[in-house]
Design brief:
With about 375 residues, the chain is of the alpha/beta class. It has a domain of about 45 residues. It contains 18 helices and seven strands. It has a five-stranded mixed β-sheet. Helix 8 runs antiparallel to helix 10 and helix 16 crosses helix 17. The longest helix has about 35 residues. The chain is globular and about 55 Å long. The chain starts with a helix and ends with a helix.
């Protein structure tokens, strides 16, 4: 993937440039990136908003993008109905719930159109003392555990994903907003962090306030998913952060957000993240800084993006990737053991397996890519 294509796509998404047909623009490359990042609907919306298809007669591109946008609009409408059903179920049992991430944006109309944002699931939190009751209510309403191939330790922040026939997405019921394997709650469900929705169909539903909404968006990918250390670009969530910031800019308590970041010692992570938002989506905040450190981090992230899908890209950057490949959590997921006492044994076993499979085989690059 080329960084020039990335920049052109983000220019379009940020409304900074009205894209038109030029001989040096390969729109298939832009669509490929948008598809990979689940931003195809957003890409179509901005093109259409800027009258791209009136100025450029590409019926094939229009039909392809508009159909994805239409399908996502229908899907999000169905998700909204699914969400109404869940909230009504909880309200009937006096269970307070906090909507998170995409479903919160859907309810609060954070995007200009319901069809812009892609949602993979419904993330909804209830107070820990009510989670068993809430889970049972959903099971009795026809939800069932999915057979997803995932590993969730007992300390994970949400229960096993559940799904219901004829419903568009799975539901992840949270007893903590986030935190990965940590038992610490970084964002408590309280009146200090949340407010009740102004949507008349969700009046008894809680939403994170703008400051904590941005904080959660940042933590979800750069802390939980370790994107900063892996120098990995998650364009969809960076775009999400940008949209939320532009909408709630005047309501964000920037000093408080800065203190929250400092409390977790994530200043480098956050400054790098804000610089990505600035470079790709022209987003400037009171906390945005520019120095050698953020320049270096950004260069590595763009290098990682351009190497995506290649053999070298699977290992770049080397040491953080190796640390992830041999982490306790990953080996537990692969070998299905529970006690850390067995970690040294399975570490050696997995290392030998890697040597046999990827070093001494003839087609190691193909196998490594398929394994990932």
């Amino acid at each position: 993937m080329k960084k020039e294509d990335l920049y052109l796509l983000t220019d379009c998404l940020s409304n900074e440039k009205s894209v038109s047909y030029e001989p040096n623009i390969n729109f298939l490359n832009l669509v490929e990136i948008a598809n990979h990042e689940f931003l195809t609907s957003a890409f179509f919306y901005q093109l259409n908003k800027n009258n791209f298809f009136k100025k450029n007669d590409d019926e094939e591109l229009f039909l392809y993008l508009s159909e994805i946008f239409r399908l996502n609009t229908v899907r999000n409408t169905q998700i909204l109905e699914q969400l109404k059903e869940i909230v009504a179920l909880f309200n009937s049992a006096n269970i307070e719930c906090l909507l998170l991430k995409g479903c919160a944006s859907l309810v609060e109309n954070d995007y200009e159109h319901i069809g812009i944002r892609f949602l993979s699931d419904i993330d909804i939190m209830v107070h820990p003392e009510q989670i068993e009751e809430a889970y049972e209510l959903l099971i009795n309403a026809g939800y069932r555990k999915t057979d997803a191939d995932i590993f969730l330790p007992d300390s994970h922040h949400h229960l096993w994903p559940i799904a219901k026939d004829n419903m568009p997405v799975v539901v992840e019921l949270h007893h903590r907003v986030m935190g990965g394997n940590s038992r610490m709650e970084h964002i408590p469900f309280s009146k200090e962090t949340s407010y009740k929705s102004n949507n008349p169909e969700f009046l008894n539903t809680w939403i994170l306030n703008p400051t904590y909404k941005l904080y959660h968006t940042f933590l979800h990918t750069e802390f939980n998913d370790n994107n900063y250390n892996l120098k990995r670009l998650d364009l969809r969530h960076v775009y999400d952060f940008t949209v939320l910031t532009k909408k709630y800019y005047d309501q964000v308590h920037w000093k408080q957000l800065n203190q929250l970041v400092k409390s977790l010692r994530l200043v480098n992570n956050f400054t790098a993240y804000l610089y990505i938002c600035k470079k790709l989506f022209c987003l400037k905040t009171p906390l945005t800084v520019e120095n050698k450190k953020v320049h270096s981090d950004y260069k590595k992230i763009i290098t990682s993006f351009e190497l995506r899908g290649t053999r070298r890209g699977n290992l770049y950057p080397l040491f953080p990737k190796l640390k992830g490949l041999y982490s306790k959590q990953r080996l537990k997921r692969i070998y299905h053991y529970k006690t850390d006492v067995y970690y040294p044994y399975y570490l050696l076993k997995h290392f030998i397996y890697q040597l046999k499979t990827y070093v001494f085989c003839k087609d190691c690059s193909k196998k490594f890519t398929s394994k990932r």
